[in-house]
Amino acid sequence: MTDIFCTIMMRLHLVLLILILTACGGSKTNAVAEAPTSKPAAKAEFDADSAYRFVKTQVEFGPRTPGSKGHSDCAAFIAARLNAYGADTVFIQSTDAVNFKGEKLPLQNIMARYNPAAKRRVLLLAHWDTRPWADNDPDPANHSKPVPGANDGASGVGVLLELARIFGQEKPPVGVDLLFVDGEDSGADSQDMSWCLGTQKWIEQMPYKVSDRPSYAILLDMVGGRDAKFTREYISDQFAPSVNDRVWAMAHASGFGDRFVNRQAGGVVDDHMFINRAGIPCIDIIECANETTGSFPPVWHTVNDDMEHIDPATLKAVGQTVANVIYNERP
Questions:
Q1: Other Cβ atoms closer than 10 A to 128
Q2: More confident residue, 199 or 14
Q3: For residues 113 and 82, what is the distance between their CA atoms, to the nearest angstrom?
Q4: Which residue has the higher pLDDT, 238 or 331?
Q5: What is the pLDDT of residues 279-309, one digit of tens each?
Q6: Which residues are paired to 124 by β-bridges?
Q7: What angle is formed at CA 166 by the lines to CA 163 and CA 168, rounded to 5 degrees?
Q8: Which residues of 107-126 are buried (b: 16+ CB within 10 A; e: fewer)?
Q9: Interatomic CA distance for residues 329 and 262, integer angstroms
């Protein structure tokens, strides 16, 4: 993903995209739903140590750039865990995409369904690929090296896999679809459509009709950084404000109000943009190093995005919040 604007300036093409999406029924609000007066019933306890191990396993595969051995090993690992954790259906969309350099990328989007008969559904997603170039590294000698992707890639997947384990033990009250998208992180800063290639391909063959689309979606991206905080991402607030309200209120009620800062920050080009365009209201839970501009943490797109910078307490705050959102849903 990439920064797309600061508080004062936005790129014109993003503004045009926002206008297009707004015409499709988006609305703007900064209101936050009133938090429950007591801690929500936690039918499932999110195990941060388990999520941490899932992150570590992915990093040990090496960079998960499309076409690499680490990429194929990680795809097999994700699918095996989903099957082991009792997903009703696990299917893989194998496809090709062309990056901004004209290179063909072999992509695999992995999806699992829990409680498939439920009429009300929620989509949870994260990207599992890693950036091929550490182009934000302070040392130019590292710019051609791949990013380990502990936070930017593995953290969201680690949280989703731990949620899958929980769903296998305690059936969620609504249907839950878990989507692991590929090819998110091979884009160029000046070309918004060059990012999130796997999500764009998934949407072309989206396994929903208009009548059975998920009620909303939550994207998890960079959710494991040390002392990370999460502001309300701008595009999320434009097109899925009630989902942001729900999640931030639940985080507050669950004891994680210090992590989920009730403030709107900048927007990012990320998978949620395309999910929203497909008609599913989607928010992005993503770390902000600067609560005002929404800029990313220092290890973003560097060779230092490694396990040293992963915090189980951050994984817990995000994972337990999302678990509480799901288990406090009504069918």
A1: 28
A2: 199
A3: 9
A4: 238
A5: 999 999 999 866 555 578 999 999 999 999 9
A6: 178, 218
A7: 110
A8: bbbbbbbbbeebeebbbbbb
A9: 22
pTM of the model: 0.90
Can you list the positions of beta strands (E) in the chain? 2-3, 89-98, 104-114, 121-127, 175-181, 216-221, 230-232, 260-264, 268-269, 282-286
Map out the domains of the chain with their CATH numbers: 2-327 (3.40.630.10)
The residue type of 88 is D
Roughly how many angstroms between the first and final C-alpha of the chain, as a whole number?
Answer: 33
User: The tokens of 190 are what?
Assistant: 């000046």
Distance CA 145, CA 63 (A): 10
- Joined together, the tokens standing for residue 107 give 């992509």
pLDDT in tens, 239-280: 999 999 999 999 999 999 999 999 998 899 999 999 999 999
CA distances from 257 to 188, 240, 245 (A): 34, 20, 13
Strand duo 104-114 + 175-181: pairing: antiparallel
